[in-house]
Amino acid sequence: MKKVKVIILILLIILAAIIYFVWSQPKEIGPLIEVEGASVFINNNLINAEIAASSEELIRGLSGRLEIRDNQGMLFVFPEADLRSFWMKDMNFAIDLLWINNNQIVGFEHNMLPPETGLSDSNLPRYISPSPVNKVLEFSSGSIEKFDIKVGDEVKIQYYSS
């Protein structure tokens, strides 16, 4: 009888380990929304945003581009609110960033400068959301001051397809 209890206990431990392993693996996100862009309105100001929804787009963001025009940006859309970490890897220009949850600004970073050349990935500064967010907007540097954006401001988003 003792032997059977030990075997059952071992099987339960193995089952628990398998379940933990499966649930703790990173999940492929795939496109979260099937749209091309969005009109983002903050304090009656319009930002035309590309959408980053696939795993590849979420990782790449605006990296590698030479510039971004005023009133343009990239909206990162996540499946659920969570703490998010961004960096400026391969960025060629400064940007402002808004941390957004449930269409409300919960924090921001302004004038995020491109990294110094030659910095390893492990030495790049990380920008972490002040609380869980389900959207992030990267847009032209100076826009936070220009549009008088503050924590608590409402964000209205209209998605569109081509």
UniProtKB/TrEMBL annotation:
Top-rank taxon: Bacteria
Quote the InterPro entries the UniProt record gives: DUF192, Saro_0823-like_sf
UniProt keyword terms in alphabetical order: Membrane, Transmembrane, Transmembrane helix
Membrane-traversing stretches? 6-23
Is Transmembrane helix found in the keyword set? yes
Q: Which residues form the signal peptide?
A: none
- An example Pfam family from this entry, by short name, is DUF192
Name used for this protein in its record: DUF192 domain-containing protein
Q: Which organism is it from?
A: Candidatus Komeilibacteria bacterium CG11_big_fil_rev_8_21_14_0_20_36_20
